[in-house]
Design a protein that fits this description.
The chain is of the alpha+beta class. It has three helices and four strands. It has helices at 14-21, 38-47, 69-82, and strands spanning 24-33, 51-57, 61-68, 90-97. The chain has a four-stranded antiparallel beta sheet. The longest helix has 14 residues, at 69-82. It is globular, with a radius of gyration of 17 Å. The termini are far apart.
C-alpha cells in the first residue's frame, strides 16, 4: 500500500493545514441583474468572496456566481438590501472542492 506523508505543521499553520484537508462547499447561483445594478452587484460578489463564472448580456445581465457556503446567506441578504428587493438570485447547484477559489473569472 502507498502511504502519503502528512505535512509537517507548526502551531501557527495548523488551522491553514486543516482547511486545506477539508472539502469546501460552494453554492452556485443564477442571478439575473438589470444593467443599472450590474457594477454594484459585481462589487458585492467580490466583497462576499464570490466568483462570477459566467456573464450573459441580453435584456438584462445573467450571472452565474459561485459562493462559499458560509457566505451565501449573507450575500443574499445584502443583495436584497442593495437592490431594494428587485434582484433575486436562485440557487442552481452545490459543489465541493478540495481547494479555495480566489480568482474572479472574466467572460
Amino acid at each position: 500500500p502507498v502511504r502519503l506523508a502528512s505535512p509537517v505543521v507548526d502551531e501557527n499553520h495548523s488551522l491553514e493545514a486543516a482547511l486545506w484537508r477539508l472539502p469546501l462547499s460552494f453554492h452556485t447561483l443564477y442571478l439575473p441583474c438589470p444593467y443599472p445594478f450590474y457594477e454594484r452587484v459585481k462589487l458585492a460578489v467580490a466583497e462576499y468572496e464570490g466568483i462570477i463564472r459566467k456573464t450573459d448580456y441580453g435584456a438584462e445581465i445573467e450571472l452565474e456566481v459561485l459562493f462559499p457556503e458560509a457566505k451565501t446567506e449573507a450575500f443574499l441578504a445584502h443583495l436584497t438590501d442593495l437592490t431594494s428587493g428587485t434582484v433575486e438570485a436562485m440557487e442552481i447547484g452545490k459543489e465541493y472542492r478540495a481547494f479555495p477559489m480566489t480568482k474572479q473569472a472574466e467572460n
